[in-house]
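Database export, one record per block. Field names are fixed; values are copied verbatim from the stored entry.
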Amino acid sequence: MSNQRSNRIIVVDDDPKLRELLRRHLSESGFEVLVAPDGLALDRLMLRDRVDLIVLDLMLPAEDGLSILRRLRGAGDKTPIIMLTARSEDIDRIIGLELGADDYLGKPFNPRELLARIAAVLRRRAAEPIAGAPESGNIRFGPFTLDLASRKLHRDEVEIPLTTGEYSLLKVLLRHPNQPMSRDKLMSQARGRGYEAFDRSLDVQVSRLRRLLETDPTHPRWIQTVWGVGYVFVPDGQE
């Protein structure tokens, strides 16, 4: 797989063999790759270099991956993050997505699958030049405005921070008003890959968007569930 430009990626994992494997594999695919064994080393790299994406292991010494993710998002850092988790840690994957991770991949994994996930996340980045000319215009609903040029969501004059994945999912829903969309179609258009059975990541991101948008997330007005199908954006808030 070729890459259209040299994106800089930081791989954060305490396993030196895995770090070297991913560094070599991603470098051969056209990425500039930095590696870090822990959160402290990650912080030093991010102070020194521009970063396009972070591959972050969940289990790290001193500060674990979830704590690092929480700290970065709490500080307003929107750098795309792909979490690496053990397949048995389903609850941690869900928490990671709730905290703002853009995607996750369970260990053990094929490096080619990680490469595909990275490519899909980077396609959603605001500065990605291969997407062509920047989008323009606003999509308004209720008190909200989604600015397609800046990729920012505002409620009246107050910005509501969105992760890369949340923005992409919301944009897809807003562009198909009153059209029920299956999970597979949403996943394909928003994340560049198909929906996998038992993958709760899409539902987690819908729940996050509801908490950001809805007055009562348990009775959603804007993003409604279509049982047996998926979700639908209802612009006027009606059933």
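Remark 1: The radius of gyration is 18 Å.
Remark 2: The longest strand covers residues 81-86.
End of record.
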